[in-house]
Structures are given as structure tokens and as C-alpha cells.
Task: inverse folding
């Protein structure tokens, strides 16, 4: 069957069967997404069980074993006070993951409510919401977070997440508004109106599933930004240093001249942040490829032909058999 | 017996940066149960605007829309009842079904919204609807992308008929289908109309099918009704210049190539 | 024309909202170090300065909030942002003016380098999809998710402390006095290498990936096939047809990133002790120097806004389709 007249990128769901729930997650089914999800899964588990499986109490000092390189007793070495770096990393996972995902959830929720509403209502109300979104886009995130966070002596996790969410929802809202506006004029939405569907059902049941890819991508992006912002805040010393997270580890490392010699102190924390960020990006790539099938097969044809022994023209664009 | 009447309806659109667009200018028509009216015109003539006004996707700038003599309800329970009685089949079979949902979902929704049958019978009614549009019951759990254009359009028709309406607007229902299956779908529509005593507003740019399937034809040019009468009269004895041009624009193989063109090409091969 | 007016109104509204937020921000923050400071240093601060501060921050101000707001606008339009409490009572506008060129210079140049390099690499990778060039993608991804401060510290540790190739901090050597002379400029560049390198390293990945994705999407279009079929050289098709269209969203992102230059370099400046806006803002926060904080925040917000406008203008100029809609 040929698809005449389709101009948008709403993907054809290649899954049969009744469970719409299952279908919504087809976008996570490629190799990239799965890799990313597995890595995040590992860190998520660490976040939950961390404090129980850490070999030492991260705060516990051991003045006999200070600044030691990795040994069997301390797999990632010790700090200037003899604290076990590995335990700090493991316990610190919870702080990072919880704040990251909480901020992501709150920000995405706000973005969906404002973005989709703005996209659907159209006209003056939509422009007003768009202007409102724009204000938050323009206000610089990190300085605002620093200013606000420094107001509170001991911000708890919820507060930090909320502040991160408030500075981060605008981008997703903008994208969602554009997508919703293009979706709104599609015939199947008009058909739902002719059916007599109430507004909330049109948005929740008819539109949202078609927006899932954008929402997921926005969520992942927000979590990444939140994690980076939070570790940066901890590193700078703005958030309380009593809560362990990877940024705090680096804060202490920096203050105690760990660079460059005591690599075991500063390398693991940064690598963990990069790893989580990388995993989230992989998930995003997976979603991108699902939404834009061209990205999926980019290069596949060339590789397939090459495997068959057919030399392919090196000039990229059109695959030509030589 | 239902009668939908458009009386002196005018519709103006405001276009960004280019002033106003007069889509409909003082259009009147009457659609009653059991009869088919064809609305014929080229792109931009205002046909789709009439469809949107009838289905309340747009409101007229001036003029009135009456159902059984009363102004149509635009809110609340009255609107809900209106939507049960007046339904629409959309032009593009590839866009009028939500890619995310199954066929069952598409056919269930009108049944549930308008409480056509008791909750327990909904599943069975969905299957009966598939029977009515002559599709296999297997399709009920498929998704739109698994169906062909013709099948999707039959689903769209089933969806429209689910609420047991009195009036149906068919907005160019076969324009985007392969020519070979158009007749099948139109015949289905004609049969269903006879079975249910529907009043059908058949919007098309194709004069031939308009004549074949409808009782009356209305010709629209740039928002103005230029001709209106019984189907055969409009086709065979067009009064207006525009109607004549429309009719002459339809290709008639016998007339076109008699002694011209093709014969000449045969004589001088290149 | 109408489109232009609507966009202009849009931005004016955003600017107004940002300035108003800035008005309310210090009034909502707890603590009033300004009054405390003024109490301690009564002789040193001129009455004019005290009045400016009052207007800007609403200290002890019996006037109704509306009047304060109007006076606030008056001050802003005159360029008076108050005086900095932590920088020896220098006018805030001057502190900002001193720091701004360093930030703009270093980060501006680094961002431009990163953009052109990244877009170029992305074009090539997108063009040669399926070849070994694809291996760049995971590498680029990894580098784009590395936390900036971490890689900065490592680079200092490596290139400065260990190898001693480049200086680790400041914009220029302490012995030299700022002047437009070759030795000075050379010294500035010498100091700028590591910070710039770090910026380029972390932002390159984003540009590469963005351009690659756009190239791949564009290369599937029929007009590319036609161009090749016409017999145009591959280089010509790649640059003139594919890249030309793929680069449009990149340019919008680029203009937006210019806006974030001013606000986003805080970490870099901290690590390298670079005397730019970010470092000043951070110091102001630590010292609770509200006048300076508020002034910088305003400047940063307005620059992002200007960058947004530039992005829109660039897009309108370069994309013939938007021109037509506006016509």
C-alpha cells in the first residue's frame, strides 16, 4: 500500500496486537535505546540499593589510609581523609539519579500541559502562552539556579529538583506547541471532533500517543541537563555538601588538590556523569531513529551492499552500483 | 425524517497578511433524509467549507443553519445529539484514521459516545459494522497502516454510520483512491444510503459520479452557487457557462480522438 | 511586514517580562545585606548612590511599589545599575563593562570555531554515511555529555600542571599591563588556548551530530538525486545543495548559543579564573553583592534575548520560505 499524501513523520507502528501500552514503547526497541536503557537501569539499581551495598560509610574517615591509590581494600582508593572513594560514588548515585529524574518528570509535566494546550487552542491564547514560554527560555538557567539556591541554607531534594525543573521546561514546551499545532489540523483529529469527543479525550487519547516520541525525547534531554546542572551546582558548592553526589566528590577533590596526581579521586566521578549522560543520549538517538526512519537506515544500504562485495561509490548521496 | 437547511450562509476567513478570503457567498441548500445531493466544483470553490459548516467544525460568518426548522445547537447535550445525527466521511483515508489506535477503537468511540447500544453489545456491534461495509471481521484488531486505502475508507464509512445517523456528509470520499476501486466504494455508499434512508451530501469534483449517484446537483464556483437542479438536468442541459465548461472538461474518449490526434499520430510515426 | 511586527511585539514583551522579573527578584530574596552594608559604611557612599540602590532594591522605601517600578525603569534607561558592594563601590555598569569583553572574546571565538569545525565535520560524516566516518558519532556523543568542569580540570592537570605547556589561569600575565600591543595580545592568546580548547572539545560533539542528522535527512530528498543526475561534481552537490539546506536549523541553534555564551561560561571562568562575566557573577553571589548580581543577571538575560532575535532574523533571511510567508 502506498502512502500518498503523508507529509509528516508520524511513524508507522510496526507492531501488531492489542496492547496500545506496549506499542507506545516501540521507540525503545532498537539497539541504541536498549543499550542506553540498560546502563541507566544499572545506575537506577545502584541508586536504590547503594547505601546498603557500599563497602564503607562514605563519611567514615580512616586517617591511617589517606590518599591511597586503589588497592583491594579500597577499589577506587581513598580521599585525603581516608574515606573510600568507591563508597562515595555508589552512595552518590542516589542523589544524582533522584534529582535528575524528579526534575525531568516535573519539567516534562509542565511542558506537556503548557505546550499541548498552547498548540491546541490556537489564536491569541496560544500566542500568550508562547510568550510566557519565551520568557523562561530567555532567562539564563544556571545563574538563576545559583541565585535562588544560595537563598536557602539547606535545600532539600524536592526543592532542588523544582528549581531545575522551572528553569528547564521551556524548551520542551516550545517543541510540543509546534508539534501539537501541526497535529491539530490532521483529519483524524477533526474526525474525533465530529464524533463528539470531549476536549480532554481528544488531547489525552487521540493526540498524546502521537506526541509520545517528542515527549520522551524532551524528557530525556531534560534529565541530562538536570544531572549536569546539579553536579555542577554541587561542585561549585552551592548545594549542601553533606548530601553525597558525584559533584560533591569533585568539590572535595578540587579543594584538596587532587588534580593531577590523585586520579582515582577525580576520574571515576566525572566518568560516571559522562556515562549516564551518554546512556541518556543513546536513548535519545534511539528515539530519533524511530521517528525519522531515514536516520535508521543511514548507511545500512551501503554496508549491506559492501558486504555483498559490491563496491559502492564513495560520493555519498546516491547509492550507485559500480 | 430529518431536514438540514443552510440559509444564506456566508463564510469569510481572515488570512494572515493577505486580508480576507470569501469562501462562501450567500449559499443556501436543503438536505433531507433519503435524498443525495451532489456538491460539485473545482478546488477552492468552497465545497469543503460547506462540509465543515454542516459538521460544525466551522461556524458561518452570517446566515443560519437549521435542523428540522430549528437553529442547530452548538453546545452541550444538544450538540451531542446533533453529532449523532450528522456524520462525515473524510477525503484522505491515510489521514482520517489515528495511526496509533486499532480499528476497534475507531469504531467503538462513536458507539460509546452516543450510547448506540448497551455496553455489553458494543463488541458485537463493532463486528456488525465491519460486515455492513463488507470487510473481514479479522481487521478489527489491526491498525490503519496495515490496511489498504480502500479498506481504510470503508472503515471511515463504518465509523460515520456507527451512530445510526440521519444525514451524512461525504467529502470527496473516493478522490484519493485508486480509480479501479472507486466504483466499489461509491456503490457501497449508495447501498448503505438506501438501506438506512440516509440523506447524503456528496462532495466531489467528478461530474460523472455526481450524476450517477445523486438526485440533485449543486454547482459551486468560488463560493457562489451557479447552478442547482435535478441531476440529469444539470448534466444534460446545463444553464450556466461554468457548468458547461465543467462538463466539457471531462474527457470523453470517443469525442476526443475521432479523426484527430491519435489518428494523425498513426499516420506519421516519429 | 505584519509578521515582523508581531515578532517585534513578542520580543518586546519578553524583554519587559525579564526586566520586571529582575525588579522583583531582590525584593523577594531574604536578607538585606545592602542596608547592613550601608549602615556600616555610611560615610563612604554618596547620597546619589544610596538613592540609586534604594530605587533598585526597594530598601526602606516608603514609596508605593508602582512608583518604585517607574523609577527603576528610569535608572535602567540611564544605564545606572547601582554600585557594587564587593568591588570597591565601583559602578555596576563599569564592573560589567570590564568583564564583558573577556567573556565575549574568548567564548565568542571558541563558539565560532566550534560551530564551523563541527558543521564541517558533520557535513562530511553525513555525506559519507555508511563508511568508517560513522565511528565519529559515538565519540562525539561521549564528548558532548562530559561535564564541562571535569574535563576542564583534567586538561589543566594534563597540559598545565604536568606538561607545563600552557598557563592554567587568568587572562593575561600579572606583570603585563593591558595595552593594544603585540606582546600583550600574544600573551592573551597564550592564556586563552586552554579554556578555548576545553570549550571547543565539549561543544564540538553537539554541532557534529546536529549537522550529520540534518544532512542525512536532506540527502534523502529527490532534489539531491536530480543534482547528481545532472552531472554536478559531488563536492558541489554536497556543499551547494545538501549542506546549504541542512545548515538552516544549525544556524538558528548557533545564534541561540551565542546568547548562552554570556550566561553559560560560569564554570569555565571559575576553573580557569578567567575574569569574565561568569566569574564575577559567582563572586557576587558568594559575597551577597546584590547590586552586582542583579545587574549581571539583567545583562545576561538581555543578551540571550538579542541572540534570539538574531536567530530569527538569520532564519528569515536565509530561508526563502519564511520570506514568502511574511510577504
Result:
Amino acid at each position: 500500500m502506498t502512502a500518498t499524501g503523508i507529509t509528516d513523520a508520524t511513524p508507522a507502528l510496526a507492531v501488531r496486537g492489542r496492547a496500545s501500552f506496549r506499542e507506545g514503547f516501540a521507540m525503545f526497541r532498537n539497539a541504541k535505546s536498549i543499550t542506553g536503557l540498560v546502563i541507566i537501569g544499572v545506575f537506577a539499581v545502584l541508586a536504590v540499593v547503594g547505601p546498603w551495598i557500599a563497602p564503607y560509610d562514605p563519611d567514615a574517615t580512616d586517617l591511617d589510609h589517606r590518599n591511597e591509590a586503589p588497592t583491594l581494600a579500597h577499589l577506587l582508593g581513598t580521599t585525603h581523609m581516608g574515606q573510600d572513594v568507591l563508597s562515595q560514588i555508589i552512595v552518590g548515585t542516589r542523589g544524582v539519579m533522584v534529582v535528575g529524574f524528579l526534575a525531568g518528570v516535573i519539567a516534562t509535566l509542565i511542558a506537556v500541559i503548557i505546550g499541548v494546550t498552547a498548540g491546541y487552542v490556537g489564536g491569541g491564547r496560544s500566542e500568550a502562552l508562547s510568550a510566557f514560554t519565551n520568557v523562561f527560555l530567555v532567562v539564563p538557567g544556571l545563574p538563576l539556579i545559583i541565585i535562588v539556591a544560595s537563598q536557602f541554607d539547606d535545600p532539600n531534594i524536592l526543592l532542588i529538583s523544582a528549581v531545575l525543573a522551572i528553569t528547564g521546561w521551556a524548551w520542551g514546551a516550545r517543541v510540543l506547541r509546534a508539534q501539537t499545532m501541526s497535529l491539530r489540523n490532521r483529519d483524524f483529529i477533526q474526525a474525533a471532533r465530529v464524533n463528539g469527543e470531549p476536549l480532554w479525550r481528544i488531547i489525552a487519547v487521540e493526540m498524546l500517543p502521537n506526541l509520545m516520541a517528542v515527549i520522551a525525547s524532551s524528557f530525556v534531554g531534560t534529565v541530562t541537563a538536570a544531572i549536569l546542572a546539579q553536579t555542577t551546582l554541587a561542585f561549585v558548592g552551592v548545594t549542601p555538601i553533606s548530601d553525597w553526589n558525584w559533584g560533591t566528590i569533585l568539590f572535595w577533590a578540587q579543594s584538596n588538590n587532587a588534580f593531577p596526581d590523585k586520579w582515582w579521586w577525580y576520574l571515576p566521578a566525572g566518568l560516571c556523569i559522562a556515562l549516564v549522560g551518554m546512556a541518556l543520549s543513546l536513548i535519545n538517538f534511539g528515539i530519533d531513529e524511530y521517528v525519522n526512519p531515514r536516520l535508521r537506515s543511514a548507511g545500512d544500504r551501503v554496508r549491506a551492499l559492501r558486504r555483498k562485495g559490491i563496491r559502492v561509490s564513495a560520493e555519498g548521496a546516491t547509492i550507485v552500483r559500480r | 425524517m430529518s431536514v438540514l437547511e443552510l440559509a444564506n450562509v456566508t463564510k469569510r476567513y481572515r488570512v494572515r497578511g493577505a486580508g480576507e478570503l470569501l469562501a462562501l457567498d450567500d449559499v443556501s441548500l436543503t438536505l433531507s433524509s433519503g435524498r443525495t445531493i451532489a456538491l460539485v466544483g473545482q478546488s477552492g470553490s468552497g465545497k469543503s467549507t460547506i462540509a465543515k459548516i454542516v459538521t460544525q467544525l466551522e461556524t458561518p460568518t452570517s446566515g443560519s443553519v437549521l435542523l428540522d426548522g430549528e437553529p442547530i445547537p452548538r453546545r452541550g447535550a444538544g450538540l451531542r445529539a446533533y453529532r449523532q445525527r450528522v456524520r462525515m466521511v473524510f477525503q484522505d483515508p491515510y489521514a482520517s484514521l489515528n495511526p496509533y489506535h486499532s480499528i476497534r477503537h475507531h469504531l467503538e468511540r462513536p458507539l460509546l459516545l452516543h450510547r448506540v447500544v448497551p455496553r455489553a453489545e458494543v463488541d458485537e456491534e463493532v463486528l456488525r459494522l465491519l460486515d455492513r461495509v463488507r470487510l473481514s471481521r479479522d481487521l478489527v484488531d489491526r491498525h490503519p497502516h496495515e490496511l489498504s486505502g480502500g479498506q481504510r475508507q470503508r472503515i471511515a464509512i463504518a465509523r460515520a454510520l456507527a451512530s445510526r445517523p440521519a444525514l451524512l456528509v461525504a467529502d470527496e470520499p473516493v478522490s484519493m483512491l485508486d480509480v479501479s476501486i472507486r466504483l466499489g466504494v461509491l456503490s457501497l455508499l449508495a447501498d448503505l444510503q438506501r438501506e438506512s434512508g440516509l440523506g447524503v451530501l456528496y462532495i466531489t469534483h467528478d461530474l460523472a459520479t455526481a450524476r450517477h449517484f445523486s438526485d440533485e446537483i449543486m454547482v459551486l464556483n468560488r463560493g457562489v452557487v451557479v447552478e442547482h437542479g435535478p441531476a440529469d438536468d444539470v448534466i444534460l442541459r446545463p444553464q450556466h457557462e461554468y457548468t458547461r465548461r465543467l462538463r466539457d472538461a471531462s474527457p470523453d474518449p470517443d469525442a476526443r480522438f475521432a479523426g484527430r490526434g491519435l489518428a494523425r499520430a498513426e499516420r506519421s510515426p516519429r | 511586514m505584519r509578521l515582523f511586527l508581531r515578532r517585534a511585539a513578542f520580543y518586546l514583551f519578553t524583554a519587559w517580562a525579564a526586566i520586571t522579573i529582575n525588579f522583583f527578584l531582590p525584593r523577594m530574596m531574604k536578607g538585606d545585606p545592602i542596608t547592613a552594608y550601608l549602615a556600616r559604611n555610611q560615610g563612604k557612599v554618596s547620597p546619589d548612590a544610596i538613592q540609586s540602590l534604594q530605587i533598585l532594591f526597594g530598601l526602606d522605601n516608603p514609596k508605593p511599589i508602582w512608583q518604585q517600578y517607574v523609577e527603576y525603569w528610569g535608572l535602567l534607561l540611564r544605564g545606572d545599575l547601582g554600585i557594587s558592594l564587593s568591588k570597591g563601590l565601583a559602578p555596576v555598569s563599569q564592573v560589567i563593562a570590564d568583564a564583558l569583553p573577556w567573556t565575549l572574546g574568548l567564548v565568542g571565538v571558541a563558539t565560532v570555531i566550534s560551530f564551523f569545525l563541527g558543521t564541517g565535520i558533520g557535513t562530511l560524516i553525513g555525506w559519507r554515511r555508511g563508511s568508517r566516518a560513522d565511528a565519529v558519532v559515538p565519540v562525539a556523543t561521549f564528548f558532548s555529555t562530559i561535564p564541562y568542569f571535569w574535563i576542564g580540570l583534567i586538561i589543566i592537570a594534563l597540559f598545565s600542571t604536568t606538561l607545563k605547556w600552557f598557563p592554567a589561569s587568568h587572562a593575561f600575565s600579572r606583570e603585563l599591563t593591558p595595552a593594544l600591543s603585540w606582546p600583550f595580545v600574544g600573551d592573551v592568546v597564550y592564556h586563552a588556548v586552554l579554556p578555548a580548547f576545553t570549550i571547543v572539545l565539549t561543544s564540538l560533539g553537539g554541532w557534529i551530530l546536529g549537522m550529520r542528522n540534518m544532512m542525512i535527512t536532506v540527502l534523502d530528498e529527490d532534489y539531491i538525486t536530480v543534482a547528481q543526475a545532472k552531472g554536478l561534481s559531488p563536492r558541489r552537490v554536497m556543499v551547494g545543495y545538501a549542506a546549504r539546506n541542512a545548515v538552516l536549523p544549525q544556524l538558528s541553534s548557533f545564534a541561540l548559543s551565542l546568547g548562552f555564551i554570556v550566561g553559560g561560561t560560569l564554570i569555565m571562568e571559575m576553573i580557569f579564573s578567567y575574569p569574565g562575566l561568569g566569574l564575577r557573577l559567582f563572586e557576587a553571589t558568594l559575597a551577597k553583592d546584590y547590586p552586582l548580581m542583579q545587574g549581571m543577571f539583567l545583562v545576561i538575560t538581555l543578551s540571550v534575548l538579542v541572540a534570539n532575535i538574531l536567530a530569527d532574523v538569520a532564519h528569515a533571511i536565509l530561508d526563502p520560505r519564511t520570506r514568502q510567508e511574511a510577504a
Q: What stands out?
A: The mean pLDDT of chain C is 77. Chain C is about 75% helix and 0% strand. Residues 104 and 180 of chain C are 17 Å apart (CA to CA). Residues 182-219 of chain C form the longest helix (38 residues).
